[in-house]
Amino acid sequence: MSNIVELYNVIKTYNLGEGIKVEALRGVNLKIARGEFVSIQGPSGSGKTTLLNIIGGLDKPTSGKIIIDGTDITPLGEKELARFRREKIGFIFQFFNLVPLLTALENVELPMLFSGKLSNKEIQERAIDLLKLVGLEKRMQHKPTQLSGGEQQRVAIARALANEPAIILGDEPTGNIDRATGLRIIRLIKNLNETLDQTFVIVTHDLAVAKASKRTLFMTDGKLEETPPKTVLTIPAPVLMEERRQLFLAELGWLKSSLLILKERREEIDPDTFHNAFSAYKTRLEKIRKLLKEYSSAGGEKNNEA
Ligand SMILES: Nc1ncnc2c1ncn2[C@@H]1O[C@H](COP(=O)(O)OP(=O)(O)OP(=O)(O)O)[C@@H](O)[C@H]1O
Ligand SMILES: [Mg+2]
């Protein structure tokens, strides 16, 4: 299994001058494989945000080594890091940080505009697909202030998915919304993780997030420890079925348009890249089709089930 994250003895010391130092990370080692859903808990000030920032290339360690999706990002400069973040990382924060003047649709389009890989038409189609994926097709023209907290957070998730990041990092994504909405967000993350194999690392005080994740870590005083899994979040079967069916349908639409775009651009892309991307999309498409079939027939027979 390939690792998306590899940290080796990462130390982060903040120098506050006059000999005062804060040791935010004190030798963190961590490996996260593709498709994992990891939650990180720990007291305030223990170094969780610092760790996320370092994994996401927003901050540099004092020492240690950081390999993300096969690239050693430790020596990268500001410009290269910006590019790395754009291509590899999706961020979801507590305070949404959507652009207030832009609509939901435009907010999701933004990272794709920056990466400059798709035409404007393709970008818009994909943004619509992503908003469908998070169940917001009826809110596309709304600005952030015209959306509820949970809706804003779902826009942030759609935006985080936009450039097909290797990993999505969340800092208290349910910290600023009510409990019921928070649970919807957690379910969305869990579903995206399990259907798209999207890797997530979520820092949280919310025990429900920890329960939904497959692996829980605990940060104390700049040190990271693995904690044994406790109880796991269970979603009522009919609810889970329906939510996943919707997700599969949206994902199917998205994959189909991705394949179409890829075919249209065949001439511009080198053959190896084309074949790799094509077969990756194809495999996912077939997997989703199969799952959708299972879920649809299981949904139909729901009443007969124990
Ligand atoms: N830019 C900075 N300059 C100096 N010290 C900092 C800086 N950023 C963080 N720290 C310190 O590093 C330590 C870890 O901070 P961090 O933000 O990672 O904690 P946290 O676990 O995310 O806490 P919380 O749960 O409150 O968000 C804290 O003691 C904090 O005061
Ligand atoms: Mg924090």
Descriptive key words:
disordered C terminus; binds magnesium ion; six-stranded mixed sheet; 306 residues; four-stranded antiparallel sheet; single chain; Rossmann fold; 2 domains; binds adenosine-5'-triphosphate; 9 helices; alpha/beta
Give a short synopsis of this structure:
This protein has 306 residues and is α/β, with parallel strands linked by helices. The chain contains nine helices and ten strands.
The CATH superfamily of the largest domain is identified as P-loop containing nucleotide triphosphate hydrolases
Shape: globular
Q: Based on the coordinates given, report the CATH architecture of the largest domain.
A: 3-Layer(aba) Sandwich
At CATH level 3, the topology of the largest domain is Rossmann fold
What ligands are attached or bound here?
adenosine-5'-triphosphate, magnesium ion
Helix coverage percent: 40-55%
Number of extended strands: 10
Element-by-element helix/strand order:
EEEHEEHEHHHEHEHEEHH
* Helical/strand content category: alpha/beta
**What would CATH call the class of the largest domain?**
Alpha Beta
User: Mind summarizing the main beta sheet?
Assistant: 6 strands, mixed
Spatial separation of the terminal alpha carbons = 35 Å
Radius of gyration: 20 Å
Q: What proportion strand? A: 15-25%
Number of domains: 2
